[in-house]
Amino acid sequence: MKFREDINALRAIAVVSVVLFHFNHEWLPGGFAGVDVFFVISGFLMTMIIVKGLEKESFSILSFYKARVRRIIPPLAVLCFVLMLLGLFLLSPIDYLNLGKHSAASLTFLSNVVYWTESNYFNPSSNEKWLLHTWSLSVEWQFYLIYPVVLVLLRKFLTLHQLKAVIAISTVLALLLSILVTMKSSSAAYFLLPTRAWQMLVGGLVFLYPLNLKANTKSPLQLIGLLLIVTSFFIFTPATPWPGYASTLPIIGTCLVLITHNNESFVVNNKLTHALGKWSYSIYLWHWPIVVAGYYFELGAYWWAVGLPLSIVLGAVSFNYIESKSLKDYRLDKIKVILRPIPFAVMSSLLGLTIFHSNGLLSRLPQKEQLLVLSAIEAKDDWFYPEPNIEIEGLEIRFIKGKSNKNILVMGASHIEQIYPYVSSLDNEYNIYFLTQSGCFVTPSMKNPKWGCGDLQNYQKLLNKIKFEKVLTSFYSFNSYLPISSSKRQTEKLIRIKEYDDFLFNLKSPNSDNKCTTLG
User: Fold this and answer.
1) Which pLDDT tens digit goes with each residue over 116-156?
2) Which helix (H) or strand (E) holds 473?
3) Does a cis peptide bond (omega within 30 degrees of 0) precede residue 366?
């Protein structure tokens, strides 16, 4: 296939949107939709490769897998290995343990399932997961494994025309499934292949049912498609149920761009989009660990000024010295090409499992510290925090029923959630209401800019509705909520401490004499 600048431009737009979103959600609140753009492109290209091969009766599943291995695994394996090497010196045993687990999951393309079982993608704790972004690679790889096998088997019984119809019907059914699951379990819908498959299948439909467009309609349609994609980056937020019906907007936009097949437009054919599109996979791989580093090492609110160019530089280096070199091996024997990256990936995966099963290489610590870490790991394994089970005045609450009509309010960020398992195991005299939001604070001026904190900051609604005998609060370091890093940092910190002091003074139900306890 002749190089398509429009597809390359879509990759550039997708990776830029995701990177900007990850560095600051306020820049592009719906930038996560860039992943959906990638999925459509993948579906389009994979369907084209498979169906053309079936038409010529020359399709080889081994060759198909070889191409996917050659492109995806080498840069990913290098990333995982580098992170595990650096983590040995920079991460705590528990964090290193998780990195090992996630590296192995990423290299076996099961990370989407692992992350689904751990937490919501948009939860602030996600900022502690160095390889969270590999969930999308796992979804794609699972699709790559299943899709060609299914089409080859169906081709034995169906004509190509019938096969196209089956793909079209499957796309509609998969979309309906995605919408239904998104309403029931947004986390499962976000991470898992069955609810993402339609996005790749719809890309396949663009190839299977091409439109003959007049030359003068291509540019306007392409522009409309690009506008739909960009619009989705601004009108959607992490609070939008995804990838249900809302995700059809960027999907339709991407399809319009693919349908027009217009390489002449300056919007898609320029040096910037050409470079970013080529480097998009490698930029995507490297940018997220850089984002996490900013959080993990508390590098300040302006870390993006270093992180953004560093993501591009590392992406370019990865493309030129890892990705492109592996792509140039296409003349080698099929089996050799598959095996060359696989030993390194297997080695890196085994290293990750070793780190995980050795509790983050715990033996590197003194004996006393090992015992402390082991106790922390055991406690973490027993921890749980359920989904909200009641709603009061629009606020989502975890409610534990007690024996009396007396009430306790537990409110704060994620740190106070740690007491839930203990509290829920008690024979409680009080009704206990948990009002928490990770990464959030209670006063608007102290709002964490990356997360919607509406429930927590509207706590007064709950106080007006219910009389609480006791209120228990806990929040993370004030430094985590300072929006800027400057010479005025200490002054601003003192102002915010005063605000929090006022909050504690006023924290009581109307006409009640409740007591407030703060956990440091």
Assistant:
1) 988 766 554 678 899 999 999 999 999 999 999 999 999 99
2) strand 470-474
3) no
Residue 451: left if φ>0, alpha if ψ -120 to 50, beta else—which one? beta
Locate the DSSP E strands across 413-462: 431-436
Helix (H, G, I), strand (E, B) or coil at 518: strand
* Cβ–Cβ under 8 Å, residues 224 and 256: yes
Q: Which residue has the tokens 């904190």?
A: 453
Do residues 114 and 105 lie in contact, with contact meaning Cβ atoms separated by under 8 Å?
yes
Q: What is the mean pLDDT of residues 469-494?
A: 64
pTM above 0.85, yes or no: no
Whole-number Å distance between alpha carbons of 187 and 34: 18
List, as one string, the DSSP characters of 167-192. HHHHHHHHHHHHHHHHHH-HHHHHH-
SS3 270: coil
Q: Distance between CA 509 and CA 460 in Å, rounded? A: 8
How far apart CA 152 and CA 160 sit, in angstroms, is 11
CB 481 within 8 A of CB 448: yes
Q: What is the identity of the amino acid at 171? A: T
